[in-house]
Design brief:
Chain A is α/β, with parallel strands linked by helices and 395 residues long. Chain A is built from 14 helices and twelve strands. In chain A, strand 11 and strand 12 (367-371) form a beta hairpin. Chain A is globular. Chains A and B meet through helix 1, helix 2, helix 3, helix 4 and helix 6 of A and helix 1, helix 2, helix 3, helix 4 and helix 6 of B.
């Protein structure tokens, strides 16, 4: 019955999601407190109190038919204006509401941008390790995703290999910083150099190559690390943002696509992206939560909690003998597997009720991803298990 | 910059949406009370009070990380169970939570089902007049939409022409009853006969032809008219439902796809549809509103208000000399244009600040759609304008 294109997707259903379901199964058997599920990026930090207050106030102050009704497919104009203002204030930019399209999270934003840009056979480049769903997103529009092999010393992108990989069919590049799964923040030097390469190569291939910046983790950065605002380094940049992590609202599916005026043919690109938002079936981002964003544009979830988690988990794992780059952002540790086959290592972890995701789920075998967007107590409780695992691996 | 496929969409941007923007523009000039906008299906009836109560209760009673967090891509299981129970009670069916996938409205539901089913070149049949966005939805997956010409006496589908149009490439059929734009409810005889034809033709072409029932207007039926529950008449039926109209929540983007066990390869179809929901970028339907549905599954917006609107508008238009089938459902009147070119008629209406949508926007020239999901007062205020328009048309 099902389409040919869906068959491989059904065969290789998301390993991360499978782990999520497995975590629920194990919790049902052993009790939630005895299962250490580090598999999913589902924030355990609650949404800021201001979210609840905003919802209550909106329901009391605004008309039901307005709050729950249709608006322009791009989203409420005052919501987009509030976001533009906030960005302009922080980054000394000059965005206006027309540059913004409210979307059903960043995943939907990425789909809309790819639908807007890609012709069948167009190539999109990204950097391993990366969120494997990018493959599905690109294939949705018959594009071809190519991943540049990782530099496992720093997990900054290998820009030499990148420059060589760009060809005439290259239409777009997807970056994700702070990065899932490594937690690495791409440096100013990286982004600046990336912009130069793209500018030069766009001239060379005779068309603009679009830099798509997938930014659900923008606000999750620690130790005062500098997170470059990408539109300032390359003119043909489109940002896909999500409030899933910054406001702990992943289930609400709320984010935006930002298409600056500097993007080539920006008016047409914006119009096409709004239409893509409509015809893909989203129609518009959920309305009540859009209204909430307007009132909470300066709010952040308690990001210090993640930093505290990172510090405990990172220092403990290193103490137990694991090897891992210290993440400066997001809420993931990308740990070198002490066993050659990291899937076997994941199985060993599972025996100790520790759920982690194999690096091959991010096109980077030999590593595992540990999501530390869990309670501090879960990390504390899990440490003896990690120590035992280290022992069994001879660390 | 933009993809070839997007170019015609940018060229022919939705006439209905353009009208919506035009209505806002005119309201800005003449005042909202002097513009009679009948162009969009944006319910003016507020959501039931129970929605506000449910949101407040959820925020007070349920955990933030649960209410706003990720859940299974198909949606919260208890929400799906509540919907299955409500359907089973009303329609004597035996659905279980696994038959349901919560979606970002019916538009997203249709996209997910088409993505699940269509191979490039597959044909989908629908019945004119119909919501032209179906074209975009089908083209998203490289399918071909064919529309059966309308029977303008009854606006029941022409099943003889339908049977002849089915061929080896026919994979699915989309119906929409109560219908946008005619307000007609497909009768038991129609649905029953449709099912027989599909059963016979499926055998003939050697594969199951899926009946996709797009049901945002299911609860909007008047005069006690019988609205057949389509899964009972044909085994390979998939329902795409939306709460946009029944709970007046169109901006919230909440609905479901229902895939009964009787559908061929139902387990695989359900799994593929859940994956399509994820990879299309929705990931899941908005979480808080899902939780609201669980508590409000028996609620309905004040549908009597639409019936009252229909009665006033229909009787007035007929009195002025317009010709129109009496709608039994939805909130639209499909009026015969008194001018040969119905677009010229729409322009004449606009001169009187009356906004209506040309029938050609539903593949049925010579008619206009009037949405009566507006205030009763707007209808009252607009009647002198309609009377003048009738006069200018020599009615």
């Amino acid at each position: 019955m099902i389409a040919e294109k869906m068959k491989p997707l059904v065969q290789n259903n998301s390993a991360i999601r499978a782990m999520f379901e497995e975590g629920r199964r194990l919790a049902g058997i052993y009790g939630a407190e005895n299962v250490y599920d580090f598999s999913l990026g589902n924030p355990n930090v609650p949404a800021p109190k201001a979210i609840k207050t905003a919802i209550m106030d909106i329901l009391n102050e605004e008309e039901s038919t307005f709050v729950h009704g249709y608006m322009s497919n791009a989203g409420y104009e005052d919501v987009r204006a509030a976001i533009a203002d906030e960005l302009n204030e922080r980054f000394q930019t000059a965005f206006h509401p027309e540059n913004l399209i409210m979307t059903v999270g960043a995943a939907s934003g990425l789909n809309i941008v790819l639908k807007t840009l890609l012709n069948p056979g167009d190539e999109v480049i990204t950097f391993a390790p990366y969120f494997l769903e990018y493959n599905s997103y690109v294939r949705n529009y018959d594009g071809i995703l190519t991943a540049i092999a990782p530099n496992t010393d720093t997990f900054q992108p290998d820009l030499k290999a990148f420059a060589q990989a760009i060809g005439e069919k290259t239409k777009a590049v997807i970056i994700n910083s702070p990065n899932n799964p490594t937690g690495v923040v791409y440096s100013r030097e990286t982004i600046s150099h990336l912009g130069e390469i793209l500018r030069e190569k766009s001239r060379e291939v005779g068309h603009a190559i679009v830099l798509i910046s997938d930014e659900p983790y923008r606000e999750l950065a620690y130790d005062g690390v500098f997170v470059p605002f990408v539109t300032k380094y390359y003119e043909n940049t489109i940002i896909c943002y999500s409030y899933s992590k910054s406001l702990s609202l992943p289930g609400e599916r709320i984010g935006y696509v930002l298409i600056p005026d500097e993007v080539e043919d920006s008016k047409e690109v914006i119009q096409a992206a709004v239409i893509a938002n409509r015809v893909s079936g989203s129609v518009n981002a959920p309305s009540l939560i859009q209204r909430v964003i307007r009132r909470c544009v300066h709010e952040r979830a308690n990001i210090e909690a993640y930093e505290k988690n990172r510090n405990l988990l990172y220092s403990s794992l290193v103490k137990f003998g694991f090897s891992c780059i210290k993440p400066e952002g997001a809420f993931y540790l990308f740990v070198k597997s002490p066993m050659a086959d990291e899937k076997a290592f994941c199985e060993l972890c599972k025996k100790h009720h520790v759920l982690v995701v194999p690096g091959s789920s991010f096109a980077c075998a030999g590593y595992v991803r540990i999501s530390y967007c869990v309670s501090y107590e879960q990390i504390e409780r899990s440490l003896p298990a990690f120590e035992k695992i280290a022992g069994e691996c001879g660390l």
